[in-house]
Amino acid sequence: MRIATLALLTTVLVSPALAADLDYGVLRGADDDYVATAPLIDWSGFYVGGHGGYSSAALGFNNAFQPIVANALRNTVAEIEMGASQYLATRATHSGGASYGVFAGINYQFEDVVAGLEADYTYFGRSGSSFDRIARFRITNDGFLTTVALNGQASTEIEDFGTVRGRLGYAFGNLLPFFTGGLAVGRATVSDTVSVQNYAYDNAAYTANQTGGTTTYIKNYGYSSFSQTNPPGSIPAPGTLYGATKKVTVVGLAVGGGIEYAITSNFLLRGEYQYVLFNDFQGHKAELNTVRGGAAIKF
């Protein structure tokens, strides 16, 4: 019994000491050899890619016809008494279709925050138009039965546009949600034209001739063929076209946001929404909403 008790005490006392002398360095490695796990994706770097999607343009024309008609009929009773320049009205319209282009930018990553600068080009090539036509007549103060007939057309075509924007996002590994905003520049073709007919005849002389007696010459203007015996059946001259078509450069603001996904460190996919609001140009307005996808290579 004494021998067994001494053997048990010896085992209990000696085992901790032996355990303390064991070296596990071979298993865990040296403390200064430990390296933290590297992030899966480094978003920093230059990238270039292409995009495609759908753009919708909201187009406005203010009152593009008014100054054209007012200038064409200046110093006439049609404008002074009848206010013909107020007759026509424009209406806003929408135009949409496929859009596509390229983009390039550079990112800088600060821990999980990613900031950068990006430029893009988008081809759109869509247009929208507003039409209006009206004719009015009245006996003006000079005794003439005066008629004004107007036919107006206004149109805007957004050919293409580009933006330069800052980007700010937050990286969740391979996923990067981001917001963006900056300046936009585009090319547009605007057209504002009005066909104007203004014709009249001396209604007082015509009425007097109907009562019999002496026949009075009926003064008139604006006719290609005038009948002294039947003025209402006379043929007015074709309308004169006023206005112009111009190519203009438009500027504005661009904002948007999206999500980018890194398939690898060098190949990126994205989905994005972009809103562009151009300043008024030549009396026209335009704003664009674009939803698109894209792919890029990062260097």
Task: Explain what this protein looks like in three dimensions.
The chain is mainly beta and 299 residues long. Helix content is 15%, strand content 58%. It has a single domain, classed as Porin, CATH 2.40.160.20. The protein has helices at 2-21, 25-28, 65-72, 77-80, 203-210; strands at residues 45-60, 93-110, 113-139, 144-170, 175-202, 220-221, 223-225, 235-236, 240-262, 267-278, 285-298. The longest helix has 20 residues, at 2-21. It is rod-shaped. The relative contact order is 0.19.
**CATH fold group:** Porin
Discrete helix count: 5
The largest pleated sheet is described as: 8 strands, antiparallel, barrel
The count of domains is: 1
